Inverse folding.
């Protein structure tokens, strides 16, 4: 058995595909491309594949990762060409590489996710910077998610304005993305009382395989 890692982007209408449907979409893409994907054992076998991290609905990404397990070795260049012909609008393969079969799961090594958020034109930069300074100066910001309290401040690793001279202010934020401690851009924007033109996930950060 072999393990293949697909880096892909998600944009346009595809950003409204939920995590479960995205798994199904990739299963169809791989099947149509004739990829010899491995299946789980049991009563209801499923294709052996794992996404690094669920992407909230409506958010674009240029760094999504999908690991698949295949029964025979595959030329990655050829696979990228084969997949390109069957991709729906809004999904684009960036890179395909083979990785060690024994490598730990992406989910277990993921520690942070980075986003670039394009804001509305009516945002005053100085007011925005004051809001960010106040937020980062707080010890905690208690919010609710699914009826449970959580500290949003503890999930924010970095937050700054990255386009200060543009007519369209842009934020950079790095959130914790550990199991049970994952920050979400929509919840940050709701707390700050501002709207976004677009949100793009630009990076996923992992610890080394041996950690």
């Amino acid at each position: 058995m072999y393990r293949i890692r697909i880096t892909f982007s998600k944009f346009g209408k595809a950003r409204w595909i939920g995590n479960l449907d995205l798994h199904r979409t990739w299963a169809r893409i791989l099947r149509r491309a004739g990829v010899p994907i491995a299946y789980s054992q049991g009563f209801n076998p499923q294709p052996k594949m794992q996404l690094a991290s669920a992407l909230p609905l409506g958010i674009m990404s240029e760094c999504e990762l999908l690991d698949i397990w295949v029964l025979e070795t595959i030329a990655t260049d050829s696979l990228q060409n084969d997949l390109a012909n069957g991709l729906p609008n809004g999904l684009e393969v960036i890179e395909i590489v083979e990785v060690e079969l024994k490598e730990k799961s992406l989910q277990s090594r993921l520690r942070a996710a980075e986003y670039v958020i394009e804001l509305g034109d009516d945002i005053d930069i100085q007011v925005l910077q004051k809001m960010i300074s106040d937020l980062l100066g707080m010890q905690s910001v208690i919010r609710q998610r699914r009826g449970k309290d959580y500290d949003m401040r503890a999930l924010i690793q970095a937050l700054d304005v990255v386009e200060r001279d543009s007519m369209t202010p842009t934020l950079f934020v790095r959130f914790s993305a550990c199991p049970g401690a994952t920050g979400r851009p929509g919840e940050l924007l709701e707390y700050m009382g501002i709207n976004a033109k677009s949100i793009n996930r630009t990076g996923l950060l992992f610890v080394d395989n041996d950690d």
Q: What stands out?
A: The first strand starts at residue 2 and ends at 10.
